[in-house]
């Protein structure tokens, strides 16, 4: 009996549970129906579009999608082109740097050449000797040539003669025991032939370097057109004796030498300088210009001397050189130029 009640009770519980589930399902469906009714009520024909419009919009959307994809492809192509151009630009920039280096190197070479040209121009300017300076240098050279010629000829005629060219290369100097005895203005008899020979040699040389009726210039003997201003016979003494007396003595010695030379070659006084004055002249310096120490006999013998000094004419300006040349060339034609 008790078991039967238990069974029935269980059956009732199961039936009650089934009824509850059914109710819930029905309630849920009811709610769904209410929602569908609500949404159906909200639906309006105005919220829909015509199919033709829809198809057109859909077609346009597809076209836009197609254009967008095409634009994407173009963007990719352009990006690739940009990268390629950037690579080209980078290469060109590298080339530009290389070319700039070459340009810089060429500019350095150009500057070096300009500097060299400037240096050569300066060197050329320095080498362009002033005509007046060139003439004076040539005249100095001709003077030395005359003195060397005289010295060498006298050495041939008088091998024992001690004759030298001064350190200034402007005078012929007779040294040794001198042309004169101490205190005398008369040429020693054994020295007189020296002075006479000197006069003869001068008479042969002076025509090419002077003006006047005996002058005869030629390019062979005087290519630089040098002209002698003065041929000075200078008398000197040693320091023995009175200063003033020595001055007179030296002048007398110069005069004695001058006279002896004229006795051999009287035409010497007719050789003229550019000023039209005789080139031959005399001067006495006494003991004022010693060339050796007067404390020794050898020094006194040397100081007791006669110098033959040649002074070349010095033009004041370059244009005067042409006048000198013209004057000398007239003597070549045998004309008298004063």
How far is the first residue's CA from the last residue's CA?
193 Å
CATH homologous superfamily (4th level) name of one domain: OmpA-like domain
Assign the CATH class of one domain. Answer: Alpha Beta
Order of helices and strands: HHHEEHEHEHEH
Averaging pLDDT over every residue, what do you get? Answer: 84
Q: How is the biggest beta sheet arranged?
A: 5 strands, mixed
Overall, the morphology is: rod-shaped
How much helicity do the residues have?
A: 55-70%
> Any low-confidence stretches, pLDDT <50, length ≥5?
none
Pfam family, one: OmpA
InterPro entries: Bact_OuterMem_StrucFunc, OmpA-like, OmpA-like_sf
Protein name: OmpA family protein
Keywords: Coiled coil, Membrane, Transmembrane, Transmembrane helix
Structure description:
This protein is α+β, with helices and mostly antiparallel strands and 338 residues long. It has a domain at 133-332: 60s Ribosomal Protein L30, Chain: A (2-Layer Sandwich), CATH 3.30.1330. Helices cover 60% and strands 8% of the residues. The protein has 7 helices and 5 strands, in the order H-H-H-E-E-H-E-H-E-H-E-H. It has a 5-stranded mixed beta sheet with strand order 1-2-5-3-4. The chain starts with a helix and ends in a 6-residue tail after the last helix.
